[in-house]
Amino acid sequence: MNGAQAVIRTLVAGGVEVCFANPGTSEMHFVAALDDVPEMRAVLTLFEGVATGAADGYARMTGRPAATLLHLGPGLGNGLANLHNARRARVPLVNVVGDHALGHKRLDAPLESDIDAVAGTVSGWVRRSLTTGDVGADTTDAIAAARGWPGQVATLVLPADVSWSEGAAVGPVRHARPAPRVPDDGIEGLADVLGPSTVLFLGGTALQEAGLRAAAKVAAGTGTRLLAETFPARMQRGAGLPDVLKLPYPPDGARKQLDGVEHLVLAGAVEPVAFFGYPGTDGRLVPEGCTVHVLATPAEEVVAALQALADRVAADATPQVAEVRRPELPTGRLDLRAFAEVVGALLPERAVVVDEAVTSGYFLPGATVGAPGHDWLTLTGGAIGQGLPVATGAAVADPSRPVIALQADGSAMYTIQALWTQAREQLDVTTVVCDNGAYAILAAELENVGAASGGERAGRLLDLGGPALDFVALATGMGVPATRATTAEELAAQFRAALAEPGPHLIDAVLQR
Amino acid sequence: MNGAQAVIRTLVAGGVEVCFANPGTSEMHFVAALDDVPEMRAVLTLFEGVATGAADGYARMTGRPAATLLHLGPGLGNGLANLHNARRARVPLVNVVGDHALGHKRLDAPLESDIDAVAGTVSGWVRRSLTTGDVGADTTDAIAAARGWPGQVATLVLPADVSWSEGAAVGPVRHARPAPRVPDDGIEGLADVLGPSTVLFLGGTALQEAGLRAAAKVAAGTGTRLLAETFPARMQRGAGLPDVLKLPYPPDGARKQLDGVEHLVLAGAVEPVAFFGYPGTDGRLVPEGCTVHVLATPAEEVVAALQALADRVAADATPQVAEVRRPELPTGRLDLRAFAEVVGALLPERAVVVDEAVTSGYFLPGATVGAPGHDWLTLTGGAIGQGLPVATGAAVADPSRPVIALQADGSAMYTIQALWTQAREQLDVTTVVCDNGAYAILAAELENVGAASGGERAGRLLDLGGPALDFVALATGMGVPATRATTAEELAAQFRAALAEPGPHLIDAVLQR
């Protein structure tokens, strides 16, 4: 068995069954070995940012790592932005980066670069496998590191000769350790601070059903308010589930939500801070005098902690949940509200919504809260270009669930190549491009930072018109059927049609401002 | 004056007059300041790899740095592959990366990451500007570092508050230092080793006209053979210029060229090595027993050294130059030879050819050597996705010259967003996509590394069909007029038409195998 075969067999034995790949010469033995291990599904992407984002989406939906296969330092660089997002999502991910043969490193060949330095910025674990004899065990360690608590990116650098040489062995299977439990006295101590001037701030798995129900019980029993982190990796919501407001992205909105709060209890989330600093303001959002408590860090079992807390303080309370309620299908003008209403009116059962709508998403939470139960995946690390790849990985994770990518136009262009993989794999992803012809968020941020000069040259850098992007042409050019909607009725008809048909579709929703 | 204004004014004063930009929130003051400094031309790109590759192309054609404007660590990551290529091209480049305000860093906001670690892997110089009072002088240092000899990537990390605060001053102008001269005795000593079993190995500026003429004189006077590095940043060639063979990319071909060579004299190039290691072979290409000499390192003035050498050993020799000779326009089947013949037959005067044709480029050197004088820019660092961005930057550098991008299909998809910038700026770039529906080079490499299993699953990872990419749709979707050629006649007619019209065009050349 050669090294590549051992890596793939170890991955499969360790529960890593999908590899999002962008191989090059140094990964050819890995590619060849795929034919020997049919249990590994390899999904080709045309750009590494698609591979890393897809692995993130896959992990968010399964809780298990996918592997990537990237080509040397530049391939890792291309995948870095979505590895950054994956790091912020705290997902498990086995990031395999091929490298030159060991004896080739010192020659400083054209593709030589410092892989370890780049990998270190997004990985909780980095190792270069140095011998074929060890590569199986190295892979075991990579899987274990990725599946630590919380999940993290584990980067295995795989030299070409370690791959191609014979004498490898499959690494041992190591069972994933359960998350560390919060000690009882930590939970006990918090009972006293709950109440109407307290916020229970939820993140991580606290935003999935069991955590939400426990938190909602605490809220119902004590009057404690619930808030969710601004950009959750995965949040379950819809009719029959507790409806938790996400802390708003704009710092002013966030501060309003936290105004008067005396105790902030972190449950799987970290203390909220402003996304960016702005002139004359503090980036901290927690009000002066508010005490921050920790029920569970992202590295601890938050759901059990919430349940224990609920049992302690609100054993008989009935959690409040969202009612079944959908908006009417809108007519006429296709603006942000109509866009949200179409989504809310038609969102199918068990949908996975990947939200990179950015400024176009304002009305989405309200319009979808009473739709059938669904998952909501967001831009965890703020590095745009995450939506289409994450949607791709989510669709690979569970083909039985319809995936809806709500995607801002400017951001879509960062990893537009994801559409091709959706077409090749015939993934059931419906992408709605929120087409406003601008980096609209930057126009707002230009105001926020007090830099709005109104100048024409500045404005040109925020404008995506001239030429307008034709997303219908771009999608069909990559094999994804696409249509354009300019009215609410058109969007509704096209969205309904796309959902009714298997396979990927794209709708270019031309939004009125 | 705020920090951003000082940075831009210092750049302009230091001869940096173009900025390829992908701004985000932390760069908004930089964007606003563009309206105050009209001498700086800002070119918007839709993806950072386009910005960094365009800055590389601009520098190759002007010898002067452009600036980039990237958004935080993820933006730098997206631009990293083409910064890698720029590093290998040894071009000057001022890489401006916006960052969080200084007081915001410790909050570990979602977009926080280790910019310095990533930047260090591609930069010869990295500095974070820490005060608005110093930012002008920091910018001066960045320009000076970029314009050192040879050129390099200088990364200036620009915190948002350093940009937005008042109290900045324009940094001093520092004149670029000339390249260090090779001492006379270094040149003298080499005279004795020249002859038919010696190769003068040319790289860097030795591949521009003056260097080539001096090297060809040496060759004519002494029988010394000339070879060029495999992937030059910029090589001048065509009728009336010496025709120098590039060392072949496949190691076997390279070894054949170097077989029997007793002395290898490096002139602006480094010792050649194989691009990749392969099982059972050594990555070194220089034959056993061959002595390597250095006429000039890439950090020294190689052209003057070649001229001094020519004066010393071949003062009266007449350099051999390529004759005027163009292929006939081919007819019928559009294969690799016909593709090359169309390019050779129609290549316009003073063309800039950006060559990322990869496996489709086999016949290009022979077909174009007798065409009118032109520049040839290649994939210096091996990180694919360089062609369209470099063509974009080359066209910005000199609008009077037609730019021809010969672009492999798989590689094109890495930075396809460059087409939009070409459309917006109405750049005179004619892109010919070598459309073979495959990562053809990887099929060859699968053989080279001895991994060809013939397996279907491996084959699927090298195949770009299913669905086929429609480059006509992709180009028109970004505002670039496009056509498809399936015969030699169609390619010739479309290439001629594209060259006759200003602005960008794309031809999807469907190549027969």
For the structure shown, list the relevant keywords:
homodimer, 513 residues, alpha/beta, Rossmann fold, 3 domains, seven-stranded mixed beta sheet, 20 helices, 17 strands
Uncertain residue ranges of chain A? none
Q: How confident overall, as mean pLDDT of chain A?
A: 96
Helix content of chain A: 25-40%
Q: Distance between termini of chain A?
A: 60 Å
Give the overall shape of chain A, derived from the CA principal axes: globular
Strand order of the largest sheet of chain A: 9-13-12-14-15-17-16
Radius of gyration of chain A: 23 Å
CATH superfamily of the largest domain in chain A: Thiamin diphosphate (ThDP)-binding fold, Pyr/PP domains
Structure description:
Two copies of one chain form a homodimer. Chain A has 513 residues and is of the alpha/beta class. The first copy, chain A, folds into three domains: 3-164, Thiamin diphosphate (ThDP)-binding fold, Pyr/PP domains (Rossmann fold), CATH 3.40.50; 184-313, Rossmann fold, CATH 3.40.50.1220; 336-510, Rossmann fold (3-Layer(aba) Sandwich), CATH 3.40.50.970. Chain A has helices at 3-13, 28-33, 48-62, 72-89, 115-120, 135-146, 160-164, 184-190, 209-222, 251-258, 302-313, 336-346, 364-368, 387-397, 409-412, 418-424, 440-448, 456-460, 471-477, 488-500, and strands at residues 18-21, 41-44, 67-71, 93-99, 125-128, 153-159, 198-202, 225-228, 235-237, 263-267, 291-296, 352-356, 374-378, 403-408, 429-435, 482-485, 505-510. A seven-stranded mixed beta sheet of chain A has the order 9-13-12-14-15-17-16, with helices on both faces. A six-stranded parallel beta sheet of chain A has the order 2-1-3-4-6-5, sandwiched between helices. The first copy, chain A, has a four-stranded parallel beta sheet with strand order 8-7-10-11. In chain A, helix 1 runs parallel beside helix 6 (135-146), helix 3 runs parallel beside helix 4 and helix 8 crosses helix 11 (302-313). The longest helix of chain A is centred in the first third of the chain and has 18 residues, at 72-89. The radius of gyration of chain A is 23 Å and the shape is globular. The termini of chain A are far apart. In chain A, 64% of the residues are buried. The model of chain A has no long low-confidence stretch (mean pLDDT 96). The interface between A and B is large, with 102 and 102 residues.
